[in-house]
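Researcher: We're teaching a course module on how sequence relates to structure. For the next exercise, students receive a sequence and then see the predicted structure as tokens, so they can try to spot secondary structure elements on their own. Here is the exercise chain.
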Amino acid sequence: MRRLTVVGLGNTYLTDDGVGIRVAKELKRRIRDCRVTIREVTGDSLDVIDAVGNADEAVIIDAVKNGAIHGGGVCTYPLYNSSLPAVLKNPAPGQSFSVHTINLQTALLLRKAAGRPVPNRITLFGVNAIDTETFHEGCTVELLKALPEIVLLALEFIRSRIPDLKLKAAKGQSSHDIRSSQRHTPRATLL
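Model: And here is the predicted structure for the students to work with:
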């Protein structure tokens, strides 16, 4: 059985930086499939890589800054790399690094180098943030308006990886309705 882990990453106290957490919470409400694990992570890259565990594939949902797309727009990036950065292999005398400055690719490689399982494929599902610096518990108005479409895009991306994805029925929805909506949900396009 193929296993997929979805990690919503962010800090909900830094405005749009918490969008990954918000999308993950909504996905938890909608997905009912034992092949999909959904986690929320507020830590650093090492916490994210630990959260993906030994899944076959992982999707990390996080706020990104990409001037090429509008606020709330979505883009996907494959995360993979073939070798550890030189600073980790052969640090200069007196040179050190912090786990807080390790990016996701480096954290993945460190886990792999330690002999721990890593997913065969990891995709960053990036949501273009407008404000990730203001201390505020909640997203900007623009991102809140885009959130339903972002969740649909995330569902469609997950469905592209697990075509027979099982969803939970909404209140008042029959099992026939949910089977029908699983087959006929409009396809959204990743930007």
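Model: If you want an answer key for the exercise: The mean pLDDT is 80. Residues 4-184 form a domain with the Rossmann fold fold (CATH 3.40.50.1450).
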